[in-house]
From TrEMBL:
Pro residues bias: start-end ranges: 71-81
Annotated spans, Disordered: 49-89
Alphabetized Pfam families for the sequence: rve_3
Residue ranges annotated for the Integrase catalytic domain, each copy included: 26-58
Origin superkingdom: Bacteria
GO biological process, one term: DNA integration
This protein's name: Integrase catalytic domain-containing protein
Organism, scientific name: Thalassoglobus neptunius
Length: 89
């Protein structure tokens, strides 16, 4: 299991200050929360490497998986056509 990194107090204060500034500029609480969530998703998926993905970000891992050709199982050989006599037995 990986150790979770905690945010530094300075980072939390910065987030709160950014949110407060957005509210003071007339943004709604919903808009502020949406911005915070978008920023978190960007960091989580595009900037923060994950040990469970071999040190890649989820975006890098997804791109890598998409570039690997999918193995298609071989098809069964065609069956011989039915003969009229096969239908009678």
């Amino acid at each position: 299991m990986t150790k979770r990194r905690r945010r530094k107090p300075e980072q939390i204060v910065k987030l709160l200050q950014e949110g407060q500034a957005m509210l003071a500029a007339g943004k709604s609480l919903a808009e502020v929360l949406q911005k915070l969530i978008q920023d978190w998703r960007m960091t989580y998926n595009h900037r923060r490497p994950h040990s469970s993905l071999g040190g890649l970000t989820p975006a890098e891992f997804s791109t890598q998986c998409a570039s690997v050709p999918e193995k298609v199982p071989p098809t069964a050989p065609p069956s011989p056509p039915l003969q009229h006599t096969d239908l009678l037995t």
